[in-house]
Amino acid sequence: MKTLTCPHCHARVPHGATVCRGCKAELEYGTPAAAYLIPLIVACCVAWLVLYGMYHLLHIASHEVYGWVGWIVFLGVFICVTVRVNKSFADRVVYHRIYRTDNGNRRSHVRSR
Asked: What is the pTM of this model?
Protein backbone atom coordinates (compact mmCIF):
# COMPACT_ATOMS: atom_id res chain seq x y z
CA MET A 1 0.00 0.00 0.00
CA LYS A 2 1.24 3.46 -0.87
CA THR A 3 2.12 5.70 2.07
CA LEU A 4 2.54 9.45 2.29
CA THR A 5 4.58 11.58 4.67
CA CYS A 6 2.80 14.37 6.56
CA PRO A 7 4.61 17.70 6.02
CA HIS A 8 3.57 18.88 9.52
CA CYS A 9 4.64 16.01 11.79
CA HIS A 10 6.52 13.75 9.31
CA ALA A 11 4.37 10.74 10.26
CA ARG A 12 3.59 8.02 7.72
CA VAL A 13 0.02 8.29 6.43
CA PRO A 14 -1.58 5.52 4.33
CA HIS A 15 -2.90 6.69 0.97
CA GLY A 16 -6.66 7.18 1.21
CA ALA A 17 -6.68 8.27 4.86
CA THR A 18 -8.69 11.39 5.62
CA VAL A 19 -6.76 12.45 8.75
CA CYS A 20 -3.10 12.19 9.77
CA ARG A 21 -2.76 10.04 12.89
CA GLY A 22 0.15 12.10 14.21
CA CYS A 23 -1.06 15.72 14.05
CA LYS A 24 -4.73 15.33 13.02
CA ALA A 25 -4.23 17.28 9.77
CA GLU A 26 -7.07 16.73 7.31
CA LEU A 27 -6.14 15.35 3.88
CA GLU A 28 -7.82 16.38 0.64
CA TYR A 29 -7.33 14.33 -2.52
CA GLY A 30 -7.97 15.02 -6.18
CA THR A 31 -9.22 17.96 -8.16
CA PRO A 32 -10.16 21.14 -6.29
CA ALA A 33 -13.66 22.45 -6.98
CA ALA A 34 -12.37 25.72 -8.46
CA ALA A 35 -10.47 23.81 -11.17
CA TYR A 36 -13.79 22.91 -12.82
CA LEU A 37 -14.14 26.54 -13.90
CA ILE A 38 -11.36 25.93 -16.44
CA PRO A 39 -13.36 23.47 -18.61
CA LEU A 40 -16.45 25.65 -18.34
CA ILE A 41 -14.64 28.79 -19.55
CA VAL A 42 -12.74 26.96 -22.31
CA ALA A 43 -15.91 25.24 -23.57
CA CYS A 44 -17.86 28.52 -23.64
CA CYS A 45 -15.06 30.29 -25.55
CA VAL A 46 -14.62 27.50 -28.11
CA ALA A 47 -18.38 27.16 -28.69
CA TRP A 48 -18.66 30.94 -29.15
CA LEU A 49 -15.75 30.95 -31.63
CA VAL A 50 -17.30 28.11 -33.64
CA LEU A 51 -20.69 29.84 -33.78
CA TYR A 52 -19.06 33.17 -34.64
CA GLY A 53 -17.13 31.47 -37.46
CA MET A 54 -20.26 29.75 -38.75
CA TYR A 55 -22.14 33.02 -38.95
CA HIS A 56 -19.47 35.43 -40.17
CA LEU A 57 -17.09 33.21 -42.15
CA LEU A 58 -19.37 30.48 -43.53
CA HIS A 59 -22.52 32.65 -43.67
CA ILE A 60 -24.77 29.95 -42.26
CA ALA A 61 -27.94 31.71 -41.16
CA SER A 62 -30.08 28.86 -39.79
CA HIS A 63 -30.68 29.45 -36.07
CA GLU A 64 -31.68 25.82 -35.53
CA VAL A 65 -28.23 24.73 -36.69
CA TYR A 66 -26.60 27.17 -34.25
CA GLY A 67 -28.36 25.59 -31.29
CA TRP A 68 -27.38 22.04 -32.08
CA VAL A 69 -23.82 22.82 -33.14
CA GLY A 70 -23.29 25.11 -30.16
CA TRP A 71 -24.39 22.49 -27.63
CA ILE A 72 -22.47 19.66 -29.29
CA VAL A 73 -19.26 21.70 -29.41
CA PHE A 74 -19.75 22.93 -25.84
CA LEU A 75 -20.35 19.44 -24.41
CA GLY A 76 -17.53 17.84 -26.41
CA VAL A 77 -14.97 20.44 -25.34
CA PHE A 78 -16.24 20.49 -21.75
CA ILE A 79 -15.93 16.70 -21.40
CA CYS A 80 -12.46 16.57 -23.00
CA VAL A 81 -11.06 19.41 -20.89
CA THR A 82 -12.66 18.02 -17.70
CA VAL A 83 -10.99 14.64 -18.27
CA ARG A 84 -7.65 16.40 -18.82
CA VAL A 85 -8.03 18.49 -15.65
CA ASN A 86 -8.89 15.39 -13.60
CA LYS A 87 -5.80 13.60 -14.93
CA SER A 88 -3.55 16.53 -14.07
CA PHE A 89 -4.81 16.58 -10.45
CA ALA A 90 -4.93 12.78 -10.00
CA ASP A 91 -1.96 12.64 -7.60
CA ARG A 92 -2.81 15.81 -5.67
CA VAL A 93 -2.83 15.57 -1.87
CA VAL A 94 -3.27 18.64 0.34
CA TYR A 95 -2.82 18.64 4.12
CA HIS A 96 -4.99 21.10 6.08
CA ARG A 97 -4.10 21.73 9.69
CA ILE A 98 -5.51 24.32 12.08
CA TYR A 99 -3.08 25.49 14.74
CA ARG A 100 -4.56 26.62 18.05
CA THR A 101 -3.00 29.31 20.21
CA ASP A 102 -2.66 29.07 24.00
CA ASN A 103 -5.97 30.89 24.57
CA GLY A 104 -7.91 28.58 22.22
CA ASN A 105 -8.10 30.86 19.18
CA ARG A 106 -7.60 29.31 15.77
CA ARG A 107 -4.63 30.20 13.58
CA SER A 108 -4.00 28.79 10.14
CA HIS A 109 -0.23 29.20 10.04
CA VAL A 110 2.73 27.83 12.01
CA ARG A 111 3.58 29.67 15.20
CA SER A 112 7.14 30.98 15.22
CA ARG A 113 9.28 30.20 18.25
From this structure: 0.66
